[in-house]
Amino acid sequence: MKKLLTALLIAALLCAVPALAEGAHLTIAYQYGLAYAPVVVAMTEGFIEKAYDGDLEVEWVQMSSGADINTGVMSGSVDVGFMGVGPAITGISKNVGYKIFTNLSGQEHGLMSNDDSINALEDIVGSENQVALVNIGSIQHIILAKCLSDNGYDAHALDANLVAMKHPDGMNALMTGSLPLHLTTNPYIFRERETEGLHEIEALKAAWPKENSFIVGVAAVDLHDNRPELYKALCDGLTEAIDYVNGNLEATAALTSQYDGNSVEDEIRYLGMGSYSAETQGIEDMARFMFDNAFIEADPGNYSNLVFDNVKGN
After folding, report:
1. How is domain 120-206 classified at the CATH fold level?
2. For residue 6, is pLDDT > 70?
3. 2-107+212-305 against 120-206: fold identical
4. Does residue 270 have a pLDDT over 60?
5. pLDDT digit string (tens) for 276-305?
6. Which element (helix H / strand E) includes 182?
């Protein structure tokens, strides 16, 4: 009996060793475009892993929309995601299970057309002219709605005109004439502005300036509450990545240009046109607008309901 107990004890210890030796794991989802430049830096330079006191494996997953990230967080397959502030607010209002842990970037948005007869919102509202943007309910959709509201139209006046397309596909549709309008951001808006035969609908520019939050990072409440060391490493690593972008445009461009096909020279220029900061700006106002215009059903309340306690801004 003693030998049997000893054997069982040894077997139990052997089974426990891998669990004790296993390091931490973090799954992070992100999307497309230069607004995500600090994410690319954090990924390639390993800043989160370096900030963690222990073994950490970070799995990076590129997704097409905030809706996909929401599904991942709800299922437990995604711990952290980066998305437009509008979809992030929507997810918080629906109790997906996350809050904002950092701002990432602010970027210019533009509404471009290839049709000389379309020069203002009045040429689009009430027409059949289609507007390509990345997704229904995306931050681009919310910005367009805010632009409409700011100019005296119903915020949902163009909902029926919207066509969901990834930024590169929307740009291609605009340039080939497949669709007359495209609402996009960095770097696609700058390419379109430089393309002969395209012009901008100027009213959109004032709706959401580039200093305001555009892309934010969300983290699962479980990560924040139950794995504080890992959560801190996440925050520290992303802050370091943001600082890196701001202080090393050329080195950042050398990294990010490998993912989007721009030349390093163009990439440096596009990066310089963005705003990269860990501090949020305007998200409480955005949440209030979304509630007042039926983009979300639940009253968002104040700023603290949207962010974890380490986040600074408004």
Report:
1. D-Maltodextrin-Binding Protein; domain 2 (3.40.190)
2. no
3. yes
4. yes
5. 999 999 999 999 999 999 999 999 999 999
6. strand 181-185
Nearest Cα residue to 125 out of 157, 162, 152: 157
115-to-109, 148, 180, 188, 304 alpha-carbon distances in Å: 19, 20, 6, 18, 44
Tell me the Cα Rg of the chain: 22
Note the helical H segments in 59-187.
66-75, 85-93, 139-150, 167-176
At residue 305, the pLDDT reads: 96
Paired residues of 291 in beta bridges = none
Q: Which residues pair with 102 in a beta bridge?
A: 217
Q: What whole-number distance in Å separates Cα of residue 179 and Cα of residue 156?
A: 20
Q: Is the separation of the CB atoms in 26 and 224 below 8 Å?
A: no
- DSSP code at position 130: -
Is a pLDDT exceeding 80 seen at residue 14?
no
Query: pLDDT band at 125, cuts 50/70/90?
Result: very high
- CA angle centred on 70, ends 64 and 71, rounded to 5°: 90
**CATH 3.40.190.10 assigned to 2-107+212-305:** yes
Q: How far apart are CA 45 and CA 50, in angstroms?
A: 9
Beta-strand pair 181-185/109-113: antiparallel
What is the SS3 assignment for 55? coil
For β-strands 80-84 and 24-30, DSSP reports them as parallel
**Tens digit of pLDDT for each residue in 228-238?**
999 999 999 99
Helix axes 249-260, 264-272, angle to 10 degrees: 110
| Distance between CA atoms of residues 55 and 7, nearest Å | 31
Q: What is the DSSP letter of 160?
A: G
